[in-house]
Specification:
binds ligand DP6; alpha+beta; eight-stranded mixed beta sheet; four-stranded antiparallel beta sheet; 8 helices; single chain
């Protein structure tokens, strides 16, 4: 029996991917830009077995035991196995047991499928005895169905080029993790798993009357954030990520059927963050497909922000992240 161990980070998108031009090839309407998270990652142990069985075991956040997973979770894994086999042009099959564990709650707007599927793509390629370029691995991770997984392959800060076809849509590193000492303070307001997966959401994004408007806006925001990032202009950067989060959630709430990821607590915490900013402690929020909030700040404000949010009744847990490397074989 051979065991392949992989670690892969979740990522937080500053400019988001929402909506697919092509749902089979997972081609987005716009480029997106993210940071890999040091404290939110998936560790996978892929054990290649002699048997033909292909099994998945998951240990949830704060749980002590691995539970066998079946249904849609296993189906997605088997699909990525088949996609990888074709992608690396392999001709033999292998049985496996996958043991996957997260350092954070899954399906709660912290990109658990991005860390899992980026890691799994790397693990399968390695198990087939192959190595791929970073670009090709990113494409394979995108094809897992969880498109944002492609951004967890390169190191540090990743830019996903939307591309025009299957082979030109991939993520690459815009800067290594050391480039900018940013923190992502994840405020966990609710551990519950979201009810509608992003895949359903992407399909209906264009039904929002604001979607076309958002696309035009995003193109401008991508240019602006590129500049703010190059200059490390944090205030400008922060304003852009908040505008972006509001833009994506406006589309989500107005698409058909609508998706309301925010809770009352989400709004309360946003208001508190804005008030706190008036005292000179600069943190800016962004939110993915969930009610939990990511507060982005520069390292020197991290301690104060953590201390403040630790005291807020809406906040159940906090995970502090710094920019991290991409998926790795351990
Ligand atoms: C809102 O299709 O990559 O996080 O498969 O649920 O992880 P999952 O999502 P995916 O869409 C991610 C959407 C987003 C924004 C983003 O990360 O760009």
């Amino acid at each position: 029996m051979r065991s392949i161990k992989v670690k892969s980070p979740a990522n937080i998108a500053f400019i988001k991917y929402w909506g697919q031009i092509d749902g089979d090839l997972i081609l987005p309407y716009n480029d997106s830009f993210s940071m890999n998270l040091s404290g939110c990652f998936t560790t996978i142990d892929l054990q290649v077995t002699r048997s033909k069985k292909q099994e998945l075991y998951i240990k949830n956040y704060k749980s002590k035991i691995f539970k066998k997973a079946e249904g849609p979770a296993l189906e997605k894994v088997l699909k990525l196995y088949e996609t990888t086999k074709v992608y690396v042009n392999a001709h033999t099959n292998f049985g496996f047991k996958i043991y996957s564990q997260n350092s954070f709650p899954k399906k709660a707007g912290i990109a658990s499928s991005a860390s899992f599927f980026s890691g799994l793509a790397l693990a399968f390629v390695t198990a087939f005895g192959e190595t791929l370029s970073e670009k090709d691995l990113s494409i394979l991770a995108r094809l897992s169905g969880s498109g944002s997984a492609c951004r967890s392959i390169p190191d540090g800060f990743a830019w996903w080029h939307k591309g025009q076809n299957g082979s030109s849509s991939f993520a690459e590193s815009k800067a290594p993790s050391e480039y900018w000492d940013l923190s992502d303070i994840v405020l966990i307001l609710n551990y519950d798993e979201k009810k509608v997966g992003s895949q359903e959401g992407h399909k209906n994004a264009a039904t929002s009357p604001f979607f076309q408007h958002r696309l035009a806006d995003v193109e401008k925001r991508l240019k602006d954030i590129d500049q703010a990032f190059a200059l490390k202009n944090f205030r400008q950067f922060g304003r852009l990520i908040e505008d972006e989060a509001i833009s994506m959630h406006s589309v989500m709430m107005t698409q058909r059927p609508p998706l309301y990821f925010w809770s009352g607590h989400t709004v309360e915490v946003i208001k508190k963050l804005i008030e706190l900013r008036k005292t000179g402690i600069e943190g800016y929020f962004t939110i993915d497909a969930g009610e939990n909030i990511h507060v982005i700040c520069e390292k020197h404000n991290e301690e104060e922000l953590v201390a403040y949010f630790n005291k807020q009744r809406e906040v159940k847990d906090i995970i502090v992240n710094h920019p991290a490397k991409g998926a790795r074989v351990l």
